[in-house]
Amino acid sequence: SGQFPNPGNKGYAGMYVENHALLNVGNPSSEVNTFHDLQNGIVAKKSNIQVRNSIFSHMEQTTVPFGYPLASSGNGILVTQGSLHQYGLGDDVSSSPVTFSNCTNGIRASLASIYIYDNRMQDVLYGVRSTSNVPRPYRIENNNIRASEAGIALHQLSQAPGGASIADNTITINGNPAGVGIKLGGIPYATHKGGVVKNNAVYVRNAAKGIEMNQTNELTVSNNTVYLQGGSNYVGIQANGGYKNAVLCNNVVGSLQAQSTSGGPEATDFINIRAYQSMNSPENEWGCNLMMGSGIGMEFSGASELSDIRGNKFQELNFGLQIG
Predict the structure, then answer these.
(1) Exposure string for 25-44, b = 16+ CB within 10 A, e = fewer
(2) Are strands 180-185 and 165-167 parallel, antiparallel or unpaired?
(3) For 258, which DSSP code?
(4) Which residues neighbour 137 within 8 Å (Cβ) at sequence distance 6 or greater?
(5) How far apart are CA 179 and CA 182, in angstroms?
(6) Quick check: 185 and 155 in contact, CB under 8 A?
(7) H or E segment at 246?
(8) Which of 150, 140, 216 shows the shortest CA–CA distance to 185?
(9) C-alpha–C-alpha distance, residues 128 and 62, integer Å
(10) What b/e readout covers 211-226, taking b as 16+ CB neighbours within 10 angstroms?
(11) Which end of the chain has the least Cβ crowding within 10 Å, N or C?
């Protein structure tokens, strides 16, 4: 009550922050802050905030009336033109509370530096979603995310600063034919530059892709494991456009070996599932990767000149390497 203009049946934000040099929200030694059933939990504009010991639930996207500073809703935390350091309550599914639940976006950022650690997120459309066309650091680490559209969707349109990483996360994508575990790039005519994606476990359950590199340059994707579970997945790790990326020492494990040890009739649903795919993405390095239990191990189509393919292991596949 008392908000103008009236936001409707739900308050615009539990907390709105603008032009703060540094604001701390939550104290690990105090009771947990709860943001529930709002259009947004925390909205921060041109501010640097640190969020601890806070839970966000039931932030669903709706129409924001004209007159509010940021016309966005459905966000646990929304930050633009500043920085966010956010620390969850742990990522252990057996003992840690869920930090973000039933939100359109757990965390959404624009033109902001983000440091996101130790969360459990479930029943979210996107776990972490960020876009920047200026150099902004990012670290998204040690989170357990169950999402339907994308666990992490990151569009860094200029060179990522050193240390930028998506690491040690567990992501589950379930039941969305377009769902992606970790999605980088994806904005037409723009590239995602730099950074590291490493040591993540991605479970793709009747969804599209584990890790998508869409118009990325100089990105390193290493030591990740993608589990393709179910017969309607499309690809484990995909490079679509871009160049000079390194895809190294990853594991993509499909369901083919559980259906048929010989690749026979039981495996027909898996014939079009790729463990790794390169589409019009030249000068990439593909090495030390394992692929097993998919229809196609590695597929290269379109411009793939100067690709370095060596030291990979192909196991229990209908086709190992397909070019063209």
Answers:
(1) bbeeeeeebebeebbbbbbb
(2) unpaired
(3) H
(4) 113, 115, 160, 161, 163, 164
(5) 9
(6) yes
(7) strand 246-248
(8) 216
(9) 19
(10) bbbbbbbbbbbbbbbb
(11) N
Amino acid at 189: Y
What angle (nearest 5°) sits at the alpha carbon of residue 112, between those of residues 25 and 130? 100
Whose tokens are 């357990």? That residue is 144
Tokens representing residue 304 in the block: 């793939």
What does each of the 324 residues of the chain score in pLDDT, given as a tens digit?
445 555 567 888 999 999 999 999 998 888 999 999 999 999 999 999 999 999 999 999 888 777 777 888 999 999 999 999 999 999 999 999 999 999 999 999 999 999 999 999 999 999 999 988 788 889 999 999 999 999 999 987 767 777 789 999 999 999 899 999 999 986 665 677 888 999 999 999 889 999 999 988 899 999 999 999 876 668 999 999 888 999 999 999 987 754 444 444 444 455 678 899 999 999 999 999 999 988 899 999 888 888 999 999 999 888 899 887
